[in-house]
Amino acid sequence: YPWIKLVNDIIGIVGEVNDDTTEEHKQILGQAHAYRAMFYLDMARLYEPKVNKYTEISESILGLTVPIVDEYTTIDDTKNNPRVSREEIYKFIFDDLAKAEDLLDKSKNSFNAPTLMSIYGTYARAYLELGAAYKEYNGNPNPTVLPLTQEEAYKKAAEYARKAIDTANVPIMSEMEWTSTTTGFNSVVPAWIWATQMSTDTVINNLYAFPAHVCPEASYGYGPLACVGVASKTYDRMSNSDFRKKLIVGPNTTYADFKNYTTMPQDEWEELAYRAPYTNFKFRPAQGERVDYMVANAISLPIMRIEEMYFIEMEAIAHYDEGTARTLLNTFMANRASNYVILPTEDVVDEIIFQKSVEFWGEGVTLFDMKRLNMGVDTTGQNYPSGMLFKSEGRLPWWNLPIPSGETAVNTACKETAGPDPSRGLVSEDAI
């Protein structure tokens, strides 16, 4: 909401477009509407309560998202501002996207601000979410607001994903771009159609930065201690010809196997491999710098990659044309694993989501997919701490974020609809 306030202020200052509006102001206004659409889409997906087997959810809050605050909302309004329905929030999001699409320069492609390709990408994300929502709730409960069937929503998702692909006209990331020890997932490449970019001017200290917590080579931070990695089941399922697997420290990986993919000296790497197998080296400190955090923390991160559009397209199509989706998946994966082919017995949506989770590990994409599709999590018999061993039937309860008490203490309209409480209903095997 602080970010939304910034764009609301900009929208309010620029005002309605008229004959006197400059081209520069049109671009600023278009970007503001695009950012606001992205912020509300993320919140809608995080806060809408979805049915799960572990928490009771009142019928009164099913389908509710978050309060809308726009450029017309007053301080007094925010004190009695209810959560709006799924239909209302998506209508608001689509209205913002339509304004952004109309205002933004159609010829401009830039990674560090919204452009037409990222507008289409946000449309694709939103329609994919709606396709699953209609299926779960047996149709659109308010067709006058969003007159779409499930299949129509999925077709819209595929349509906008393809528009993003065609508008961007960029290649997907190569093996070299993935595996570079100096620029891997810290520097903008053409496939990043929307990204953040940090500089040394924005570095505060050694720990207030993404690399300090996620990069195992960032010796100045927690990365080498946390050793963030993948599930052993994920590693085993990946094809040995998949170059993305080269960045994961397998249980039998040797330094000789890995030395081309790390800046760590052998003794340090071998200690990490012994202590924390399955650590993922996908993200690198800037320039491969391991000590000087002023340099190392000044990285770029993707907000949206063109690869996501390929996955949205193939999944959306899979819901109404499985054969075409299988072909699209095989075509994409030929760029990741030389001998890949999806077997006829494999569920195509499940395999698409698995490969998408590998592709976007650490990028904040997978949670939305798993919540949307009611997918379960099984950590049993794997490389998880003993207190984190469980097998869920469908969604985890904590994927439904409640409205926080800081909001309900001020906004009285959300007090009775803040739930559900996600902290009960699922325990680890150790506690069973």
Describe the overall structure.
This protein is mainly alpha-helical and 432 residues long. The chain is 43% helix and 3% strand. The chain is built from 18 helices and two strands. The chain has helices at residues 2-14, 23-47, 75-78, 86-103, 116-136, 150-168, 175-179, 210-214, 223-226, 232-237, 255-258, 266-275, 293-296, 306-318, 322-333, 348-359, 366-372, 405-408; strands at 192-197, 300-305. A two-stranded antiparallel sheet has the order 1-2. Helix 2 runs parallel beside helix 5 (116-136) and helix 14 packs antiparallel against helix 16. It is globular and about 65 Å long. The relative contact order is 0.13. The mean pLDDT is 93.
Secondary structure tally: strands: 2
- Strand order across the biggest sheet? 1-2
Let me know the average pLDDT: 93
Shape: globular
Number of distinct helices: 18
Element pattern in H and E = HHHHHHHEHHHHHHEHHHHH
Integer-rounded radius of gyration: 22 Å
Q: Could you give the distance between the termini?
A: 40 Å
What class, by secondary structure content? mainly alpha
Q: Please give the share of residues in helix.
A: 40-55%
Strand count, sense and barrel status of the largest sheet are:
2 strands, antiparallel
Query: Roughly what fraction of the amino acids lie in strands?
Result: under 5%
Which residues form runs of ≥5 with pLDDT under 50?
Answer: none
